Structure formats: C-alpha cells, structure tokens
Amino acid sequence: LQRAIILWTHDPAERDAIRANEVLKGRNPQLEVIVEIVCANSPHHLQTVKQAYCALFNSSLEKDIAARAQTHKQKLLLGLVGSFRYDKRVVDMQFAHWESADLFEAMQTKELGYDDLIYILSTRNACQLKDSFKMYEQQFKLPIYEDLKSYGGDDLTSLLKVAVQCIVCPEKHFAEVVNTSTRRLGMHDNDDDTLSGAIISRAEVDMANVRTEYSNMFEANLDDDVAEHSFGDNTKSLIMTLLGAGV
C-alpha cells in the first residue's frame, strides 16, 4: 500500500522515474518496465522522465542502465532511452516495404544479431514502425513478435518483444501483463509490484482501452480478475479506484 500511494502521489514522469530506478537497483531487475516506459509513451514523456530521474537520483537513467544491464540488453535499452522520436505521422511506405523484407531475411537466417532490429526500434518514429510491422505481417503472414519467439526465451528476446508490442498496441501489452500477474497469484515476489505498477502507470493514459483489450483477449472482466488478486484490503481499494472499477 505504501509503495502504491507513494507512486500515485508523484506526477507521471516522476512516477516512471521512480519505477525505473527501482528496477535498476533491484536484485533481479525487471527491465521490461524500462522498455514499457519508453515504447508505450510519447517521446516528450520520455524526456520528462529522464529529467525527473536526474533530479530525484542525482544520476542519469543512461548511466544507471550502463552500470546495471548486461551487454546486449544494455545496447537495446540505451538505444531506446537515448532516442527522441518524431511524434507526427510521417511514413514512407516504400521504406517500410524494404525494411520489413530485410528483417524477415534476418529472422529466417537467424543472423539478425539483433543489431538491425535494435537500430530500427531506436531510430524510427512510432508511425513508421507500426506500418513497417504491419507490412511485415502482410507479406510474411505472421506478426514480427511471433517470429521473435523462434529465438527462444532469453531475456533480450523478451525485451524486444515487449518493445514491439508496446509500439504496435500498448493496450494489448498491458492487458497481458495484468492477466499474467493475476494468474500467478504471488508465485513470484514481484507479482504484486508488477500488477500495481502496470495499473498505476496506465490509469491516466489508456486504462479504458486496456480493459476492452483484456475482455477481448481473455474473455474475462479485468476488474473482477484484479479484485481476486491477493492484495490487502486497503491496497485493493486503491487499485480498484485507479482502475475506475464499475465505470
């Protein structure tokens, strides 16, 4: 309850800065949180998060990522955090066609080395990325994040999938986060933090859309599933209020 209240009392940028710092200082860092902060929000929000991080922790987000993340994950995270995407709808469809073909070839030969995808995720504006990934699915009949599963379950692949999902449809990603957290019911120490963090971070952004996607994906009611989670009564009351339960 204390953590949830503290997070909620901060403005959104400070809230995400605190969550990023908790991740980077933790024993088993859940680096997906940083990818979510970058890829599921606007470029302007990322800049304010970075400013808040410096003010709160006397360090830069990039510096702490470099100190904490392993080499390949560090490269992805630094690329994402260091970017400032143009946030208007500017798309080159011919370029999207070329880029999707290059990515598919790399996937098929398993020689991607992740460098191409990391570069693309770090430098393209969100609209260009969405159309490139849509073109990928149209040409090759499978979403790119499904193809990423062929690489196995290593941590870097997981981060790449989160990045792609958050860019394509953040509401679906957070619906999946909520569902996974509620189903595990305390099987892992950070389940409550993951669930409350996802809800708090999206409460003022797109929770109504997350609720809709949750219903479509799992044929269940998000409010009901969260209400059954093993929160204490006071924490549950806060979380349900942030959800806008019954709205």
From TrEMBL:
Q: Does the keyword Calcium apply?
A: yes
Q: What's a GO cellular component annotated to this UniProt protein?
A: cytoplasm
Chain positions recorded as Ca(2+) binding sites: R184, G186, A227
Tell me which SMART domains the record gives. ANX
Recorded hits in InterPro entries, A to Z, give: Annexin_repeat, Annexin_sf, AnnexinD_plant
A Pfam family name for this chain? Annexin
GO molecular function terms attached to this record: calcium ion binding; calcium-dependent phospholipid binding; phosphatidylserine binding
Spell out the SUPFAM superfamilies in the cross-references. Answer: Annexin
A GO term (biological process) for this protein? response to cold
Q: Which UniProt keywords apply?
A: Annexin, Calcium, Calcium/phospholipid-binding, Metal-binding, Repeat
Q: Which PANTHER family match?
A: ANNEXIN, ANNEXIN D3
Protein name in UniProt: Annexin
